[in-house]
Amino acid sequence: MGDTIASLKIGEKGVIEDFSLDAIPLSLLEMGCLPGKEVRLIQIAPFLDPLYIKVNGSHLAIRKEMADQINITKI
Amino acid sequence: MEGSVTTNIALVGNPNTGKTSLFNQLTGLKQKVGNYPGITVDKKVGVCKISENFTAEIIDLPGTYSINPTTLDETIVLETLLNEDNESHPNLVIVVAEVENLKRNLLLFSQIKDLQIPTILVINMADQMERKGISIDIEQLKKDLKSEIILISSRKNTGIDTLKKELVNYKNWNTEPIASIADRIDKDFFDAIKKDFSELSLYKAWLLITQQKYCSFLSAAQKSKIEKLNSDREKIKKYQHKETIFRYQNINEILKRVYKVDKLQATDLRSKLDRILTHKIFGYVIFAVVLFTIFQSIFEWASLPMDLIDGLFANLSELVKTNLPEGKFTNLIAEGVIPGIGGVIIFIPQIAILFLFISILEETGYMSRVVFLMDKIMRKFGMSGKSVIPLISGTACAIPAVMASRNISSWKERLITILVVPFTTCSARLPVYAILIALVIPDKRVLGIFNLQGLTLMALYLLGFGAAIISAILLHKVLKIKNKSLFVIEMPNYKVPSFKNVFYEVVEKTKAFIFGAGKIILALSIVLWFLASNGPSSFKNAETEVKLQHQNSGLNKEELQKKIASYKLENSYIGYMGKSIEPVIKPLGYDWKIGIALISSFAAREVFVGALATIYSVESEGDNVGTIKQRMAAEVNSEGEKRFNFPTGISLLLFYAFAMQCVGTLAIVKRETKSWKWPILQLVGMGLLAYISAFAAFNILS
Hints:
The complex is a heterodimer of chains A (75) and B (702). Chain A is 12% helix and 36% strand. By secondary structure, chain A is mostly beta strands. Chain A has one domain: Ferrous iron transport protein A (FeoA) (SH3 type barrels), CATH 2.30.30.90. In chain B, strand 10 and strand 11 form a beta hairpin. By secondary structure, chain B is of the alpha/beta class. Chain B is built from 33 helices and twelve strands. Chains A and B meet through helix 1 and strand 5 of A and helix 3, helix 10, helix 11, helix 15 and strand 12 of B. Strand 5 of chain A pairs antiparallel with strand 12 of chain B.
């Protein structure tokens, strides 16, 4: 299996691949988390969850379970 | 535009765009908080004089990232914009965006624009463009978005006049849609919708289909048409995703032409602060210090105004009694209504101070970091990082705390938060704790520095939090609710809080408390007053009876009056209630007098002290707490032992720590959960816990 947002290390970047519609809520898309966009992991919360990311200009925090659903290609 | 029909202007925008600042600038103090019909979210409305002869009503809709709702607050935006019969349905919409997150802000703008209501785009924080190296070609953007655009700075109060001038002109605005969703997704499908809903804009029809469950206003005919189109849920969902992707593509193309950022200017203050504030050690240390400061300030700053309010209402009662003719009506005012209102007002200082802090923390952007830090921990207890705010608020009053849970999008996490919040030590418990601790805990120092009474109070606080956490874990295990986690939060940039916004927020939250809970507390106070000041025949003969008993005891007039009052209470309806529950509370170490105080506490817990004062026929006003303490200390039970001995005191403390003795909270929980099931669960569950622990404590200790 390829990488997901959850497999990024702090400071690393990736490009979001197409994701399955069932796993990703519409609201995440609406916040700017879209296929083809660059995502950077800014910070991980103390107990390794949630993740603080910058994607498509937005600074967001998402839970690990969701980050695990979003495939990326590391760059 | 004299009189008749008011023009409604809706303010819509992402959170953290300064939408509320703009609202405050436009309306000033001419704001009111109302309720949306049928639902319970507070509605903020204000009047604004746009020009000489154009006055409009401005409604500040809850902040949202999209017209498709994920939380209770956000459904309001959808409902208000779609339902033309809604009394707040706008004639025109102001979409507030901010320079830095323009791309994401434009998603919401493009959705609203497609509803074909006259819409204007306001770009806020324009004063920061230069510092952040941002430049925007406004003229080109106006053409691309087919809209008027105004640059403003709500903080520096610039651009507001230009905005007002443009608003006058709203009937001439271009209302063409900007994202023709149909052609890019599935032309045939959307053509069918167009045909079925020819009277509506296509996007509106599409929203009715996708968001049908939130659209309670649909006619039967519309419903059946929608159901037909709605049959393939998978397809609808896919098209919603496609729509969003398409909208972003559109926005990206536009911004590529008009929006430039000089990356070199980007500051790294944000990342430095983030690193410290969300650090695995410093992050929690800082949060603990912040919490400690809040609690400390609530105590320090609120005690003086609270004493003043207490004294003021006592004097007011006295004044009414001496100046109005004696009678039932005077008594109702002096003993029912005035203390009832006082019982509500007394909480204002603590609530205001608490919300002062919370709104500062939210304004600065720190609160999102707390949510980020606490989410994983809170999830172990079945709650969300967002539950931290209600739990902190609960230390002032559970009522605003329950309301603060609305932005938690997962129903299970929100429900658990609501259910456990009343365990946190609210300010109404403090007077009860204070007197009981003073009675049964020696005023000693332990380990040289700690005051034993202070430690007991702290232990009670921790007990409250502990009970909240443990019951949350239990509920998490027991409640079988499908939990779809939709946890996506924005981490906004840090900002210096605006004094004006903080001020308005505090005023609004305090008002919501007074008018939400105040009514119930007041009503129950009056009922309790009635029960305490009326009774069967023995009550009516109180005066002669007492005079007879004390004929030769040489009491002065005042002492006699107190004896009469005490006798009356004993023989009033509430006195009989106290006596009838005595068998139940006896195992906890209480007698019927304490029973009366327990029943009276249901309006608000702090009434306990006042009720005991009346029963023991002592003054209860302000400075004389010492008197009631002495009187309580001297009280003996049937075996001649001290009534408020250590076991009974601890038993009472535990009872007050756990029991759900607050009708106001129960009512709010009913309102927020739309069911009697949950408040009843709280009442019974917390009641049982209180009873059992008080029983255990009393029997082990004595």
